[in-house]
Amino acid sequence: MNIYTANLAGLLALCGALFAAQGRRTTGGGGDGNDLDTKENKVTRQKKNEIEMTKPPPSQRAFLVVYALVMAADWLQGPYLYSLYREEHGVSPSVISTLFTTGFVSGAISGSFIGSVADRRGRKAACLVFCVAYAASCILTVSSPAVPLLFLGRVLGGLATSLLFTVFESWMVTDARRHVGGEGGDLSRTFGLMSTLNSVVAILSGVSSEWLVGVAGTRKAPFAASAGLLVVAFGIIWTQWQENYGETGTKTKTGSDDKKTNKSPVDGNSKRVWAVLTSPRVLSLGLASTVFEGSMYLFVFFWTPALKSVSSSPDLPYGVIFASFMAATLASSLAFSMVSARHHASLLLGILGGSAACFFLSAKPASEQSAFWVFCLFEAAVGMYWPCMGCLRGGLVDDGIRAQVYGMLRVPLNVFVVVSLLLTGNGDAYGNVFLVSATLLLASSGALWIAGR
């Protein structure tokens, strides 16, 4: 057993221990030793425990199934996109860099309007459009080496990514609040489960994509599998999801007094969106999400050359290393559910500060194994980040304009990544990139602390 296989085994054992601890925490109980409890209080507490143990409504279970499918479709193709372009389509590295940049530019442009359209026309409809757009992107990517078709595939991929990280969460939060007492139940638990699902799916997808390539003998196989999963997700959304809208969409469908007052609901919502986006707390969260998620995308691009620069082995087991990263993410996702909801803001500050430390250490790694474990720590921060940010944004943004705000928050993220890629050029600049990311993460944590006070 080599060192990376042993590392992966240890991380998976940690995940198993955390999963077992969660099971004991959920089913454990017993009296609290308080003799002053009245019968009424005990009944109330019993009902509360029963509610906590109740399964989510069918629509939320359908959402989790769809979420697992669409994330699997995303993870399956990710590891082989570059190699498909380079090895099978024969595209030059400079064109590949431009293709990746095109995807982020498309995401930035579509993010500026996609949320507003989803709020007006329906979030379910937007999720269906995602399935179609991403499946078309997969087909265009594998069908022909013609560069114009590859660029069209990246444009659709950027549009689909904006939809994936905008409308699905918006639909889920609104649907949860509609079905569970107007409050959405324990959204913290839902976001934690989403993060855990994403990590598990990522590990399985990495193994499955490697198996598919081995069986089919072509790097096109994972993309075909992704398209198939998206077709299944489309069917579940179509048959089991209910539509929900933002305020402009609701008014458009049900009618309102806007005609009497000659006031456009779209204009009114535009002012509300602007007011939310410019509020100190949302601004600080937007800065944090831009810097953290942008650094995460850059990390995906640069971790390979960074690790290779301090490795004595000519051929690293990238699949095992990737699975180890995802296991670290899964472990932190499992640990997230143990954190009280009132600690989310403090937790996000810790995530930003810890990630900054990881990037500082990664700029000049001391050894191969030290670099590996620092990268695992950053991936653990990623596992905590997603549910934490989801809970914080869910509490600050109204359902009526949620998709619009989420879409606008992704615009600076895509611009950040595009500018970073254009300035760095190649993987040899990872040290400078990590130092800049660390500095920006510290600055965003400071802004978040000030806004919190």
From TrEMBL:
Give the transmembrane ranges: 95-118, 125-143, 149-171, 191-209, 221-241, 282-304, 316-339, 346-364, 370-392, 404-423, 429-451
| Signal peptide (UniProt feature, chain positions) | 1-23
- CDD domains, alphabetically? MFS_MFSD5_like (cd17487)
Annotated GO molecular function terms are: molybdate ion transmembrane transporter activity
Name one cellular component (GO) term.
plasma membrane
Q: Name one Pfam family in it.
A: MFS_5
Name the UniProt record assigns to this protein: Molybdate-anion transporter
**Taxonomic classification, please?**
Eukaryota, Fungi, Dikarya, Ascomycota, Pezizomycotina
